[in-house]
Amino acid sequence: MLPISHDEVVHGKGSLIARMPGDDWQRFANLRLLLGWMWAHPGKKLLFMGCEFGAEAEWNADAPFPWPAEDAVLPRGTMQFLADLNRVYRDIPALHRRDREADGFRWIIADDRDNQVFAFFRSDGTDEVLVIANMTPVPRMAYRVGVRQAGFWREVVNSDAAAYGGSGLGNGGGVEAGPEASHGEPFSLSLTLPPLGILILKPEGRG
Fold this sequence. Notes:
Elements: E1 2-4, H1 24-40, E2 45-47, H2 73-91, E3 105-112, E4 117-123, E5 128-134, E6 140-147, E7 151-158, E8 174-177, E9 187-193, E10 197-203
Parallel strand pairs: 1-2
Antiparallel strand pairs: 3-4, 4-5, 5-10, 6-9, 7-8, 7-10
Helix pairs in contact: 1-2
């Protein structure tokens, strides 16, 4: 289990969004990054109410539920991001089918200290998806990551999409894998990594 439970947002701990550093844009980008990492990582998810839109105040059982206003762009965008994450999680078996099996998860980048980028593959035994996260507010351009499969890799999740309140930086819907070997793989992708963002990509035509 990957729980963000009641105990994480009460007893003086504050809300998730209140613990994020930076200005409002960075705080909500960090929250989307955290949720995206949680949904892509092996393990079943448990999220406490209010975390899905970045409730500012610590949970209070004696107060009304703090739904965001209709024109609250960042909280509403975060809600849409989580709804889309849930859809992708449901529709792509590689993200959930082998949570408890070693071959369901494979690191590809875990030691890039200079760029603070992490990447891993999730697999259902047949298909793989690539998950790559930029943990800094600095965009990474032409960032190369190795993949096993040639062809077009579609960007199915981009936490920095404008619809979520992000800057809209990304890869135009996907990237063609080139013949350059990288990270021990025969092909590679040259990616634009958005600031404080997470991407999920999968080979075109594979579910």
